[in-house]
């Protein structure tokens, strides 16, 4: 009867009558790894992008990130996340649990990776046998392959648009707002583009001695185009690391949208790209900004897709740029070789501040200085004076280019 009930519940009656099934046979009913974890511990939020790791002895283990969340954390900014197709507001999230699922026998193991999280520690007290003891570490051949979870990173990156500075006065004034840099994903440059999505890439930051896999997103000042900073999320030695890298305010760092505009205006490169736009096809591109030491390398693969066929896009060309040089090639190696040779094309990186915008910034900065002076806030006065000096410098540079 048990076998018959199992066959009916799984819609597979051969389980009830097969001679290959004995009293020693076992079956995994909940085979979806996320559903399996939810059945065991339904009070955590689970990432919808688990990844597979192969251990040193050849076993395949799924790594599933789990989060504790709340919407009642005091004095914290709300944000909206989507869970099972429904938008939910939260103001607290921690990636404090890693769930390992053995792909062979379905064994599910819950590890607490952040014991400073009061929510997960409360769960541990409620379910003392669910989580692995503190002394039992995640096997190193698995933890060496951990990556920074994109779900958490995207929430943090959104918060950084406003909360990259924590001074009360700066937040109150909305004086230093950022936004994610914009890029164009089609052949036609709209001049506006859409906000870039975070992406995994191999990178080497100035404070690291080796290349590593990390998540990256570049920022611009609100309403402007030049890149002013970028956020990097990496996983080092079983520890998550999130770090913001800022450029000097006097530097004009090319944005993806500006680079696309330069490519359209350059006759040599635009001719090559336009030759790919044949009838019955469309072009798709995807800009990546890769940090290398204190520089940025722009990499833009250009794909050709046949509009009447459901086939995988074919990569046709790759554009690379760094500093004031840009080049194109059939593959990444060739494009970089061209970038380092006389084949590279010079590009002009301009300050995109308008005269009207600079005037408004100077007025606002002076008003802020008057306010901080009245409050005898010497720290803010110093910041306001530096802001005025930088804005005046940009104004003089803008006038020279007109």
Describe the model.
The protein is an alpha+beta fold. It folds into four domains: 1-29, no CATH class; 31-146, no CATH class; 154-346, no CATH class; 355-400. The protein contains twelve helices and 20 strands. The chain has helices spanning 2-9, 14-17, 33-40, 118-126, 140-143, 150-163, 168-173, 256-265, 267-274, 332-339, 355-374, 378-400, and strands at residues 45-46, 51-54, 60-70, 79-83, 86-90, 92-102, 108-112, 178-180, 182-183, 194-195, 199-205, 212-221, 227-236, 239-246, 281-285, 288-293, 295-306, 314-322, 325-329, 345-346. The strands form four sheets. Strands 8, 11, 12, 13, 14, 15, 16, 17, 18, 19 and 20 form an eleven-stranded mixed β-sheet that branches. A hairpin with a 5-residue loop joins strand 12 (212-221) and strand 13. The chain is globular, with a radius of gyration of 26 Å. The model has no long low-confidence stretch (mean pLDDT 85).
